[in-house]
């Protein structure tokens, strides 16, 4: 005997299926979370990269564009092991930031400690505001 279902039940099932699809899709792509802050002298970019080694991270600065790239690879599981749940995300990633403020490229430095990459981008002296004196009154 077949029971009829209400359109609301079918809609609820569809919503559940879509949620599962979106959840599985989101686990295949990842991008590290980043904070960007600024003070009078520099811009600082901090990226969380747990489990990565510094030689797996590529940092490039071209003009006002900072590109951070890398790949977090999955550790090989032993043949007798199988995953019951896999929530950590792996794969290639890239974050690109465009800055309108001129950067002193010769003074840029990067540190990597406890899984956090910190890139210090000192502002160029030409980027600092300066007061201009008025020479003559008309």
Polypeptide structure, described:
The chain has 138 residues and is an alpha+beta fold. The chain has a domain at 31-75 and 84-127: Immunoglobulin-like. The chain has one helix at residues 7-26, and strands at residues 34-38, 42-48, 57-62, 65-72, 91-98, 109-113, 116-122. A 4-stranded antiparallel β-sheet has the order 1-2-7-6, with no helix packed on it. A hairpin with a 2-residue loop joins β3 and β4 (65-72). The longest helix has 20 residues, at 7-26.
Q: Please state roughly what percent of the residues sit in beta strands, choosing from under 5%, 5-15%, 15-25%, 25-35%, 35-45% or over 45%.
A: 25-35%
Q: What's the CATH topology label of the domain at 31-75 and 84-127?
A: Immunoglobulin-like
CATH class designation of the domain at 31-75 and 84-127: Mainly Beta
Write down the overall mean pLDDT: 84
Low-confidence stretches: none
Q: Strand arrangement, largest sheet?
A: 1-2-7-6
Count of helical regions: 1
CATH architectural group of the domain at 31-75 and 84-127: Sandwich
How are helices and strands ordered from N to C? Answer: HEEEEEEE
Portion of residues in helices? 10-25%
| Computed Rg | 25 Å
Biggest sheet architecture: 4 strands, antiparallel
- In total, the number of strands is 7
Distance between the termini: 98 Å
Which descriptor suits the 3D outline? elongated
Class computed from helices, strands and strand pairing? alpha+beta
In short:
This protein has 138 residues and is an alpha+beta fold. The chain has one helix at 7-26, and strands at residues 34-38, 42-48, 57-62, 65-72, 91-98, 109-113, 116-122.
